[in-house]
Amino acid sequence: MKFQTVLILVLLFILPQYISISQKKDANASRPYEEVAKQIISEGLKSCNSYSLLKDLSLNIGPRLVGSPSAQKAVEWGMKTMKDLGFQNVRLESCMVPHWVRGQVEEGTIILTSGSELPIKICALGGSISTPEDGIIAEVLQVKSFDELKSLGEKAKGKIVFFNRPMDPTKYNTFEAYGGAVNQRSVGAIEAAKVGGVTALVRSMTLRLDDVPHTGAMHYVDTIQKIPAAAVSTIGANLLDSLLKIDPHLKVKVKLSCQTLPDVQSANVIGELVGTEMPQEIIVIGGHLDSWDKGQGAHDDGAGCAHSIEALRLIKTLGLKPKRTIRVVLFMNEEFGLNGGIAYAKRERPGEKHICAIETDAGGFIPRGFGVGGDSVKYQSLARWSYLLDPIDAGRITRGGGGADISELGKLGVTTIGLRVDTQRYFDYHHSDNDTIDKVNERELELGAIAIAIFSYVIAEEGI
Amino acid sequence: MKFQTVLILVLLFILPQYISISQKKDANASRPYEEVAKQIISEGLKSCNSYSLLKDLSLNIGPRLVGSPSAQKAVEWGMKTMKDLGFQNVRLESCMVPHWVRGQVEEGTIILTSGSELPIKICALGGSISTPEDGIIAEVLQVKSFDELKSLGEKAKGKIVFFNRPMDPTKYNTFEAYGGAVNQRSVGAIEAAKVGGVTALVRSMTLRLDDVPHTGAMHYVDTIQKIPAAAVSTIGANLLDSLLKIDPHLKVKVKLSCQTLPDVQSANVIGELVGTEMPQEIIVIGGHLDSWDKGQGAHDDGAGCAHSIEALRLIKTLGLKPKRTIRVVLFMNEEFGLNGGIAYAKRERPGEKHICAIETDAGGFIPRGFGVGGDSVKYQSLARWSYLLDPIDAGRITRGGGGADISELGKLGVTTIGLRVDTQRYFDYHHSDNDTIDKVNERELELGAIAIAIFSYVIAEEGI
Questions:
Q1: Residue A374 pLDDT level (bands cut at 50, 70, 90)
Q2: Side-chain half-sphere exposure of B57, counting CA atoms within 13 A
């Protein structure tokens, strides 16, 4: 080996090592925004103001199904709340939304061949048609999958099709478990009708064993007969499963009085802190203002609304003046067709450029970090800020992320980001009477708002 | 530079780099125990058996203050539970423990100078003497610190000293906030008596504003007069604070009927899975079986008992045969003097060698990782397993950790390790009527057991 060769090797291998070490030292020395992040954490945890916001929304507005008078009140609440906090350009951006109503009647009954009757807790799925006034009474075909249903040929004809595939408890991420079961709810009625079923009865989307049915959106297609669709509580589902084993010809009666009314006008609610240097560059932070008509929509997604408003309040209260505009958007109708998200993305905004959109729609639980959509360059640019979130254990910036409301923005090339929170308890409450303010912990909720405040502020300063 | 010098440099710098890279590749390629960890996660989340254990302990034994008949029942419960699960060498190791009883009377009343009376929620602190039968009625001196108390000279004489320094809400880690306030509870009565105070009334150790007093241990010293000590709910503390501002000569009446009875015999409960190759090398996993007499001791520390038993059950159920012995220890009397922990550490165990002790005593919340006491070599040896815990977001292995019950083992040189869980909700429940099974989430609890199972198993296989 020549001396020169050795020298080159030394330069190639040793110098980069030294440079890398010295860079690390520099980074440790400077760590910009660390002081600001600390202030945000301190101010947030001291006030826990997000909880006051969410309590107000949960108790004084309550459930706010899209199209309902209560959803309209929620829109007014959003306007007033952001105006009272002194946000800038507080305004509505209107959109048309569907208006489905549950009605008064929701009854489920198991009728044994002996004639004995056992009530089970059911509720209409969102978008379902009603049953005839006297209900539908039919034998039950239990299936775990659409493939199984198809394989049974004519057996579904005239039957109530009972979709009873549980969420997989072995998945650590409960959204993954949800994803593996929710097609039963969303398109079960279509699949059941295809094979002659008269009603779709779907096991509630929760990992818990309890007697509370969990609603959620279902869909029809024009080419397939519409049949009613209802969720049954997991206790009801297990009971029905057990009884079918000993009395396979039992019947179930389902009575629903829901209906779809004409579309109505509603709106996204918007407020912002205008950027001092690049006001036309926008960072959206938001959740959805509509909820299901069960419970109070506290975690889904009152928490996201409270997170977003509180994040901007924290930035404003601390007297921070971000270079770019941070805009809170409370989207209307995530649950039932994304009208608000679509309307927001479609609207002409001359001169404006969206840098990114951050959605929070996974509940008010302890934050873990952010999921970042888009390419690896953008991811790297954002992942470098994790040290600002580490003091609250929320510094896990991972690839892939966003949210339903901002998905249309994503299609336009905007970087979409989702707040990642712990998922263990979410489906205990989701879309049910359990989703109430007492299930929200003040500090866990506030930490979500703090994480968004830190992340959106640093992006507003530094771009991506 | 001589050629040899350069060559040496190359050998010094480049080779280790290559070796390091190749080691990393090997580790990535193999990642031992990953499959086992997955099995443990899957089996745990499917069964959530820790919750069944904790429900049984919480509802069928309930609160189990050291020395009480209920604590004795808990000992029997621990024996039966571990025997039923087929653990090996299930046994008791006896120790003497204190026996303090709360008594029937706990009354707190604010008496305004007008004569009006307002009840406040108080409870005796553990270890306190009783008041005279008619109670103690005295004016109140409010202080935020011992320094302030000392600076007030004679003013405390004959007064009820009201320690009202809240836990600092701006601390993310609530144990840190607790650490900053708890001396008021533990030695407030000593400090108050030193300056002539007649009772110590202490703001409850919680970040929440609620009307539930939180008890906990307090101490006397022989050289200082013993005075009664009670906790007041945070709502009661705020009320008293407000009223003192407008009526500084108001009085408070405190009535307590607690007393200390003679020590009784109790025991640590032990069960194990004997190691197949090095049975004399021991990995302890444990929590404490005693609790306060408020609530059900569900999080503190029923959760730790359930974690420990379930961790060993998971290992056993999956047919794993660890080389070293994993030993569950349910310690007696963490709350009131560590008798069980001290007795365990002092006992002669010929031929045995303790590799480490893992304690879980921070509640049944979502796990974050482990804190490892001892030197950096041991830390590094354990931190390498974090990838096994990352799939459940519990891979943060940090330096510094242990637990009260295993602190005596630590003094003997045993590596002490603490399960780190999320701390936000812990003090909402701690030492109060709020600490009940309904505050525990099945999956969060089970994930703690899973983390301990994975970590203790890999240590039992690989040592430290």
A1: confident
A2: 40
Interface test with A, best of B234, B434, B442 (most A CBs within 10 A): B442
Give how far A171 is from chain B: nearest CA, Å.
Answer: 7
Mean pLDDT lowest among A175-179, B9-13, B37-41, B295-299:
B9-13
Contact A45/B17, CB-based, under 8 Å?
Answer: no
Q: What is the pLDDT of residues B232-282, one digit of tens each?
A: 999 999 999 999 999 999 999 999 999 999 999 999 999 999 999 999 999
From A313, A343, A338, select the one nearest A328 (Cα to Cα).
Answer: A313
pLDDT digits (tens, 9 = 90+) for A86-105: 999 999 999 999 999 999 99
Confidence (pLDDT) at B29: 54
Adjacent-strand bridge partners of A286: A329, A359
Q: Please give the Cα distance from B375 to B359 (Å, whole number).
A: 18
Active-site residue A334, yes or no?
yes
3-state secondary structure chain B: CCHHHHHHHHHHHHHHHHHHHHHHHHHHHHCCCHHHHHHHHHHHHHHCHHHHHHHHHHHHHCCCCCCCHHHHHHHHHHHHHHHHCCCEEEEEEEEEEEEEECCCCEEEEEECCCCCEEEECEEECECCCCCCCCCEEEEEEEECCHHHHHHCHHHHCCCEEEECCCCCCCCCCHHHHHHCCCHHHHHHHHHHHHCCCCEEEEECCCCCCCCCCCCCECCCCCCCCCCCEEEECHHHHHHHHHHHHHCCCCEEEEEECCEEEEEEEEEEEEEEECCCCEEEEEEEEEEECCCCCCCCCHHHHHHHHHHHHHHHHHHHHCCCCCCEEEEEEEECCCCCCCHHHHHHHHCCCCCCEEEEEEECCCCCCCEEEEEECCCHHHHHHHHCCHHHHHHHCCCEEEECCCCCCCHHHHHCCCEEEEEEECCCCHHHHCCCCCCCHHHCCHHHHHHHHHHHHHHHHHHHHHCC
Residue B364: pLDDT over 90: yes
A425, B441: Cβ pair inside 8 Å?
yes
| CA pair distance A71, A11, nearest whole angstrom | 66
Question: What distance in Å separates the CA atoms of residue A297 and residue B186, rounded to the nearest whole number?
Answer: 42
User: To the nearest whole number, what is the mean pLDDT of chain A?
Assistant: 94
> What is the mean pLDDT of the segment spanning B136-162?
97
Q: Which of A75-79, A372-376, B224-228 has the lowest mean pLDDT?
A: A372-376
B429, B300 contact by CB (below 8 A): yes
Rounded distance between C-alpha atoms, residue A174 and residue A207, angstroms: 8
Average pLDDT for residues B148-174, to the nearest whole number?
97
Comparing CB atoms, the residue among A6, A422, A441 nearest residue B7 is A6
* Alpha-carbon distance values, B251 to B150, B161, B241, B343 (Å): 21, 11, 12, 45
Q: What pLDDT is recorded for position A2?
A: 46
Q: Cα dist. A283→A349, A421, A458, A459 in Å?
A: 14, 20, 11, 8
* Contact assessment for residue A321 and residue A251, using Cβ atoms and an 8 Å cutoff: no
Alpha helices (H) along A48-152: 49-56, 69-84, 146-151
Q: Do A9 and B7 touch (CB under 8 A)?
A: no
Contact across the interface for B3 and A7, Cβ inside 8 Å: no
Instruction: Tell me the backbone φ, ψ of residue B98, rounded to 5 degrees.
Output: -70, 160
Residue A405 has pLDDT above 70, yes or no: yes
pLDDT for position B153: 87
Q: Is the pLDDT of residue B15 over 60?
A: no
Interface test with B, best of A4, A7, A12, A13 (most B CBs within 10 A): A13
